[in-house]
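Sequence only, no structure available. Ideas?
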Amino acid sequence: MSEFNRPGLRWPGLRWKLTAAIAVVSALVALAMALVVHNAARVSMLNNARDLQDTRLQIAAKMYESNHQLTFHARLDDPKLPAGLRVTAAKGQRATDVQDTAGEPIIWASTPLPGNHILSINSRFTDPTSILESVDGVLVAGCVAVVLAGSALSVLVGGQLSRRLRKAALAARRVADGDTHVRVRDSIGRRVRDETDELARAVDAMADALQDRLEAERRVTADIAHELRTPVTGLVTAAELLPPGRPSELVRDRAQALRTLVEDVLEVARLDGAEERAELQEVALPEFVRRRVARLAPEARVEVVRDAWAQTDARRLERILGNLLANAERHGRGPVEVTVDGAVIRVRDHGPGFPEVLLREGPSRFRTGNSSRAGSGHGLGLTIAAGQARVLGATLSFDNASQEEGGGAIAELRLPEADDPEADDVLENGANA
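Reply:
I predicted one. Tokens follow.
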């Protein structure tokens, strides 16, 4: 079994994958936008600070030219003036600059004065720090809100899509199990023009085509078997009139085998039509199995692990049990063991076991398995048993025993369990008393 299909190992559904994807994308987009807005706000503030510094420098230069007084903490020929501003001042130009330091950046403004002097002003970019922190706080809150809103929206959208896909999968599984009346588009509910609706229409079209093909094959099979029934019956009757002798015995045996084959094919056709209905009644399984096994396979051993009553059709259950015993005797080796464990009936032989193709795909008509289990037969016995089990609402599974357990094929029939009517009578009598 693949590790992705192991019981208990459940991978996240489409809803949570979509939610995680949208949450990650929303977080990345919000983070990118926050960085862009943060940098844009910082650049804008720095430009405003440089413009303010330039304005202060112009005022300080005019006052210095009029009364030779330095204002706004201006300095003349400051030795700390950046080299770029010295070069600009040498060209006779006024300029501003931002000097990055370990702490806050320093805003410089400089202008040339007569006499090869340079007037400059500098101040740290400290005042807007609180504003940037406030902007960053708003951006973080916005990022969180975007991620939460995107996740909530993805949960709603993904949940709706996941529910529709899950309903479609359940409907498709019911179609695969033989319920030909189920349609995926009806199961997913409200019509929505999306890929889910296209998938549902495609699956329904495939189911309709498959049903038509199977119905055509079933009709052909049933018609052929029905047409063969009359001449085969006449052949069997004529064979009985032959004089005694070995050739006559061989003719009668083959004629009877042909008649059995025709009856089996007709039964398979009826089961494929999904029109068979079980006549349910309460059956005590241990006593039922003992009597049928004693008549159908006297050499088989019966073991009762736990008593149980089943709500089933006795005639169809006998047909299933007879086919399983016949398959074990024909293709396996003794001893044949029949175990009743509650509503579960197991038939086991000690032969080579079921072929892998049967364990993987289930029984198929006219397929008898590999050479070790071939022999006589047409592969209809297990097919009929599986079809009758479906009519009963039971589950028929096939497995092979391990070599440590002695090997062999195991067929397990799980029936719907019913309450013990004798126990109900005791309770009812006690209540009446």
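The radius of gyration is 44 Å.
Hope that gets you unstuck.
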